[in-house]
Design goal:
The protein has 120 residues and is α+β, with helices and mostly antiparallel strands. It contains four helices and five strands. It has a five-stranded antiparallel beta sheet, with helices on one face. It is globular and about 40 Å long.
């Protein structure tokens, strides 16, 4: 892996600070490309965020790197298997009107029990 992660960091981004370890999080997975940590305001019994280490604004930007997008989905599946029964909902909020509040792409992994239609 090159220096792209450190070159693509926003010093004002809360998720960049979590990735860097400047803000604590309850991590459930981490590798060279992504980290996954428990959401502070869970919307399901298991609610984990999968966050690429490299700063990308939203899933539209992440789509420019298909391998990283696929890896994000693979980690979501792994987390759902480890934290719940393996079934999960994967959500990318994209844009303020869609509920995105942190503009560093992140996948919400919702799992654990039966999720209601329209939950989250």
């Amino acid at each position: 892996m090159g220096n792209s992660v450190t070159e693509h960091r926003d010093p004002d981004c809360v998720f960049c600070k979590i990735v860097a370890g400047e803000i604590p999080s309850e991590r459930v997975h981490e590798d060279e490309q992504v980290i996954a940590f428990k959401d502070l305001s869970p919307k399901a019994p298991v609610h984990v965020l999968v966050v690429p280490r490299e700063h990308r604004r939203d899933v539209r930007e992440l789509a420019g790197d298909p391998a990283l997008l696929a890896h994000t989905a693979e980690v979501a599946s792994k987390v759902a298997s480890e934290q719940a029964d393996g079934d999960f909902r994967l959500i990318f909020n994209t844009g303020a009107n869609a509920g995105q509040t942190v503009f560093h792409v992140h996948a919400h992994v919702l799992a654990g029990g039966t999720l209601a239609e329209g939950e989250m």
